[in-house]
Amino acid sequence: xxxxxxxxxxxxxxxxxxxxxNNGQRASIQGGLLPGTFEADSVHFHWGSANxxxxxxxxxxxxYDVEMHIVHKNARYATVAEASLRPDGxxxxxxxxxxxxxxxxxxxxLNRILDRLPQVxxxxxxxxxxxxxxxxxxxxxxxxxRFYAYSxxxxxxxxxxxxxxxxxxxxxxxxxxxxxxFWDLLDERRLxxxxxxxxxxxxxxxxxxxxxLI
Length: 214
Prior knowledge:
The chain is mainly beta. The chain has helices spanning 80-83, 108-114, 135-138, 176-183; strands at 2-8, 14-17, 28-29, 38-47, 66-74, 90-100, 126-132, 146-152, 163-168, 172-175, 209-212.
């Protein structure tokens, strides 16, 4: 990706619009339980506060500091809005961030994103993330063969039942000072935009699949 746009969305999250890749195509995923080819569209985050963790999924009972969703739409649909109305419309790659005391980090791609957050503190402000950003950069180079998969809903209104979730087992360790930049973002009332995660939901009989290949 080149020159992605990051924006603070009204009372909800920090959002990154993903552009096409160098060759004009969009990064995509397919295979496994996915019902088609899904194109990368955007990235958004859920977080807690200085005193709480904000992931929306728990892994082995553990809640993480930040949860990142890389939203993809089924290539058969023209827009995300249209795809959200279809049961096979969307897919989300989910990565957990864990805050650690370290002052340095080798996750240069993610650091480039987090370093831009002070530029979008105000509600609905935006800035560009210049230069090249790969999908591996976004994923923090975690092992992508280890994940849970299930069918569910979006976690932001209107919570459409249209998502194939892929939740990676491995988390990305980032300096706490980087995670803390989320806590400085402001909502439309100029209050801290914190704890923007949906409460834990019941499984409601959904089958959850696990893959552990490296």
